[in-house]
Every structure is written in C-alpha cells, then in structure tokens.
C-alpha cells in the first residue's frame, strides 16, 4: 500500500529529533517556549524570504487570527474569503465578530476567482483573504490590485504554500501579511503543530508578536499592553525545524518533479473525465496533488483497490457547512466551489516516494481512465 501521507515522514530525522528533546529538556535555561531557538528559527525564515518580520506561533489557524486581530478586523466588517477551502478561512473571521463573504473559485485551479472576489466587495469590506490551494497559488497580482483600488487590507492564507513563488515573490509576501502552517504533512511540516506570520510591515509584525503572548511585549513579563492570545511556539519544534530547513529546497524539488510526471501522464485523461492541475512550476506549491474526476468516488475506490491511498478534501463548500450557513445569503450558489467539492480527489506527492511508487500511482489513475489497461489477475 502506498499511503496518502507516509508514516515515516521523519524517519531520517529520528536521531536529530531525539537529540532536540534531550537538549531542550535539559537546557539550564529551562525555556521551553519563545526562547533563543524560536528566535533563531524566525531569523532563518526572515532571511530566506526577505520579509520584514516572521513571528512563529502555535498553528496556521492561530496565525490567521493574530493577523486579523492586529488589523483591527471585528464586528461590522466583512472579509472576502474563498467558498472552497478549509474551515479556518471562515472561522477565524467569524470568531472576531466579522462576516465572512464567500467568493467562488476558479473551476480548474480551485483558488479564489479574482473577478468573484472583486464582485464580493461592498462598502463594509475591510479585507480580502485569498488562499493557496493544494498545488496552486492564488492569482495574487490581480487580487492585490483589487485590494489597492478599494483600499482594503490583504491577508494571504499561504498555510500550504511555503516554497511557492509567483512572479519572483514568495508565497506569504503578496499581502500585508501571510501565514504558514507547520503541521506535519505540510511542505515544511514538523513533528507536531505550529505556524508563522510573515509580513513586509514591521509594525504589523510587532503587533502580532505582542498578541501571540497575552499582549506582552517580550521585554517585561506580566505587563499586558493589550488583550492577547496564547499562541506561542515550542523550543523543541524550533530546534527541529532549524535542523530540517537546509533540506527543504531538495524536498520541494522532489515534490515538483513528481507533480511534473503526474501532469504529463494525466494530460490525455481530460477527455476521459479526469482533469489534472495546470502544468508548470510558476506559482506552484505541491502540498498535495489534486485531480478533478467526474466519477470521483469510483476513482478513489479504484485507487484503494490498487494499493494507492487517496484523500478527498472539503466535501462541501464553506457556505454549505452548518457552521457557516448563517453567512450564506438565501438562494446564493457557488457553482465552481460546489463542483470542486464533488469532484476533487488527491493522490500522494510527498518527497520520499520512490520513482517506482510514483509510476504505480500514475498507472493506477490511467488504468481507471482506460479499463483496457487494467491488468487481468
């Protein structure tokens, strides 16, 4: 069986992880959160990205909350978000008392459609919050232009897109702030949970830094300058991520190579009801590789019979989820998001797949599209 996510993601890093546990746990400083390792990790990411600030925090979801709070988003505000994606896109807006306004997505790339984003802007819109999805970055140049023309804040949900680059600019730095997620299966995942806010605005970075630690400024304990959160980063994970950072580019290249092979193999399947993501590497991130299939459930069962793990993300658009129904105008439809929810299925694309396994995955998809290629057992 080729699992969708591998159980041995960190097998090669076992010794380093155990050493980090021992070193951090026995450090005379006994500083287990927001210590010198976290600061070094933030510095390393800031230098890599060319950002003004990087603020490590407890998760990608928390990172979104910190950014929106730092921007003053709250009751009376609207934030335009994609209709297809993970729950935090809407939940982080709603928990602050603001209203998520859902924009439909592009039918092929599955990211927010810039025209739909602009059409969703009203006189109550305070921010736009597009998200990169699966393998494709959102059309940030057009969305950034919309934000500029309407005088709106721009938050980039780049949780799955670390390593992606569009028009020479890294994912996370198109808006006023972006976020990353380090949950284990992401492109820069760790052995646990974590996230980061990245920004070109040092003042915004400082506000986020204060909010993540109960409103303290990091200089004097127990002086709380504003109401904040507990969204602090773990020293153990900081040490582990610093260990893994030098190998990130190689892992990203391997993901891209696998995706290139899949896309070439699957290009002829479009007429057979299976659509691969757009080709190329510009504005790509290859967190997961997602197909759109007319007979999605049949394809998923077929792959599992052939020993290939597959996964369906987001089987309902956000405005059709019970939690967010109150924000869905009666009679409103999001046809592309609904189609994506009905048709998407993702296949393995992680860097420690062997070439033989990659071929096995591709062969299984192609055999479904052309039953004549199915081996006779």
UniProtKB/TrEMBL annotation:
Q: Which residues form the active site?
A: 186 (proton acceptor)
Which sequence positions carry the modification called N6-(pyridoxal phosphate)lysine?
Answer: 186
User: What InterPro entries would the database entry show?
Assistant: DegT/StrS_aminotransferase, PyrdxlP-dep_Trfase, PyrdxlP-dep_Trfase_major, PyrdxlP-dep_Trfase_small
Q: Which residues form the signal peptide?
A: none
Q: Which GO terms describe its molecular function?
A: pyridoxal phosphate binding; transaminase activity
Judging by the UniProt lineage, the source's domain of life is Bacteria
Iron found in the keyword field: no
- Keyword Transferase annotated: yes
Q: Example GO biological process term?
A: polysaccharide biosynthetic process
Keyword annotations from UniProtKB, A to Z: Aminotransferase, Pyridoxal phosphate, Transferase
Regarding protein family, the annotation reads: Belongs to the DegT/DnrJ/EryC1 family.
> PANTHER family from the entry?
3-OXO-GLUCOSE-6-PHOSPHATE:GLUTAMATE AMINOTRANSFERASE (PTHR30244:SF36), TRANSAMINASE (PTHR30244)
**Name of the protein described by the UniProt record:** DegT/DnrJ/EryC1/StrS family aminotransferase
Species of the source? Streptomonospora mangrovi
């Amino acid at each position: 069986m080729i699992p969708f996510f591998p159980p041995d993601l960190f097998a090669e890093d076992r010794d380093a992880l155990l050493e980090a546990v021992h070193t951090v746990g026995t450090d005379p400083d006994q500083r287990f959160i927001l210590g010198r390792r976290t600061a070094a990790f933030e510095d390393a990411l800031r230098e890599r990205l060319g950002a003004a600030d990087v603020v490590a925090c407890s998760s990608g979801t928390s990172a979104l909350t910190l950014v929106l709070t730092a921007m003053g988003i709250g009751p009376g505000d609207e934030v335009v978000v994609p209709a297809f994606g993970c729950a935090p896109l809407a939940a982080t807006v709603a928990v602050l008392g603001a209203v998520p306004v859902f924009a439909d997505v592009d039918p092929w790339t599955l990211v927010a459609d810039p025209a739909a984003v602009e059409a969703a802007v009203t006189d109550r819109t305070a921010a736009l919050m597009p998200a990169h999805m699966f393998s494709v970055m959102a059309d940030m140049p057009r969305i950034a232009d919309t934000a500029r023309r309407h005088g709106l804040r721009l938050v980039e949900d780049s949780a799955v897109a670390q390593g992606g680059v569009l028009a020479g600019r890294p994912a996370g730095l198109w808006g006023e702030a972006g976020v990353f997620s380090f949950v284990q299966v992401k492109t820069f995942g760790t052995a646990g949970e974590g996230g980061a806010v990245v920004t070109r605005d040092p003042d915004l970075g400082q506000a986020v830094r204060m909010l993540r630690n109960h409103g303290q400024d990091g200089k004097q304990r127990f002086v709380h300058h504003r109401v904040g959160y507990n969204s602090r980063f773990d020293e153990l994970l900081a040490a582990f991520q610093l260990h893994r950072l030098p190998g990130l580019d190689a892992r990203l290249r391997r993901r891209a190579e696998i995706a290139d092979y899949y896309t070439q193999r699957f290009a002829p399947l479009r007429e057979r009801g299976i659509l691969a993501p757009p080709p190329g590497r510009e504005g790509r991130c290859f967190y997961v590789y997602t197909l759109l299939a007319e007979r999605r459930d049949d394809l998923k069962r077929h792959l599992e019979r052939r020993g290939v793990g597959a996964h369906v993300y987001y089987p309902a658009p956000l405005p059709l989820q019970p939690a967010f129904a109150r924000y869905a105008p009666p009679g409103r439809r999001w046809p592309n998001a609904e189609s994506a929810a009905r048709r998407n299925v993702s296949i393995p694309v992680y860097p420690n797949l062997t070439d033989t396994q990659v071929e096995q995955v591709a062969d299984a998809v192609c055999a479904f599209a052309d039953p004549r290629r199915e081996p006779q057992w």
